[in-house]
Write a structure and sequence with these properties.
The chain is α+β, with helices and mostly antiparallel strands. It contains seven helices and 19 strands. The structure holds 2,5-dioxopentanoic acid and magnesium ion.
Length: 284
């Protein structure tokens, strides 16, 4: 089962993907106004399946996608894959030992990534900061958490990062990570019933420039050095999530140091069991 947030003439609406991804059903006629209303249900999969759709279905190609988020905070974990640890150690001599230690420490690196207004959905724009010269997308398996910290769904996340700013000084991390249009999420939320076993979930990144692929890479959730439930336990320690949260779980794909994103690049991130999130890059 897959839940989306879409723009309709009447405003944002919650929708269910139907007919093997051919159409989308607007659920607002069933009294469901927000995703948060559904995500806090104890019987989410049944609720999503049984809700009748009053409005006619919309062909997938006509849908205007919104990021599938209401008022949740967006958090992220870092240095959860070996590739991220080595890339960060190359990027910053000064902080190399921090990245080295955090990879194996009991306490993970967790940081605040975005508010909903900084997030873009499928086919929306993502931004390179005007003061950054070395930028990458980070393809991340993303957890959707209820207000009790329960994992209730999964989506695709793009943790846009300014590597020159982060590499200059680790204290600049919030500026390298948090700015307008810094976070992609979508295209929709996959509920647990649709997901393959975790060790079979591949994560794929493709960057297209002038119709040519300039980077492609892949990893899998099985390569992650952390356990997902453990990451969530650290996040909710002394930290209430009254509206639930999204949690990006770190990148295992980092292009070589010579690569930087350019404006008009098109970034495709696919995750098995969920789908593909596509965004065009803007700057300025
Ligand atoms: O500390 C740097 C950020 C790490 C990160 O975003 C990642 O590993 O995905
Ligand atoms: Mg990241």
């Amino acid at each position: 089962m897959f839940l989306a947030k879409i723009q309709t003439k009447q405003g944002p609406a919650v929708a269910r993907i139907a007919n093997q991804f051919a159409t989308v059903l607007d659920l607002s006629g069933s009294g469901v106004q927000t995703l948060s209303q559904m995500l806090s249900s104890d019987r989410l999969v049944e609720l999503a399946r049984d809700l009748p759709a009053a409005a006619p279905s919309i062909p997938l190609e006509n849908v205007q996608w919104l990021p599938p988020i209401d008022d949740q905070e967006v958090w992220a974990a870092g240095v959860t894959y070996k590739r991220s640890q080595t890339a960060r150690m190359e990027e910053s001599e000064a902080a190399a030992s921090c990245y080295d230690r955090v990879y194996t420490a009991a306490r993970p690196e967790l940081f605040f990534k975005a508010t909903p207004n900084r997030c873009s959905g499928h086919l929306g724009k993502l931004r390179i900061r005007t003061d950054a010269t070395w930028n990458v997308p980070e393809p991340e398996f993303t957890l959707v958490l209820s207000n009790q910290g329960k994992i209730v769904g999964y989506t695709v996340g793009n943790d846009m990062s300014s590597r020159d700013i982060e590499g200059d000084n680790p204290l600049y991390l919030p500026q390298a990570k948090v700015y307008n249009q810094c976070c992609g999420i979508g295209p929709w939320i996959a509920l647990a019933d649709s997901m393959p076993p975790r060790d079979k979930i591949g994560i794929y990144l493709k960057i297209v420039r002038n119709n040519e692929t300039v980077f492609s890479g892949e990893t899998g959730v099985a390569q992650m050095a952390r356990n997902l439930e453990d990451l969530v336990q650290w996040l909710i320690r002394d930290n209430d999530l009254p509206n639930g949260a999204f949690m990006l779980t770190g990148t295992g794909v980092v292009p070589d140091s010579s690569f930087t994103l350019a404006k008009e690049d098109v970034v495709h991130i696919s995750i098995d069991g969920i789908g593909t999130l596509t965004n065009t890059i803007v700057q300025g």
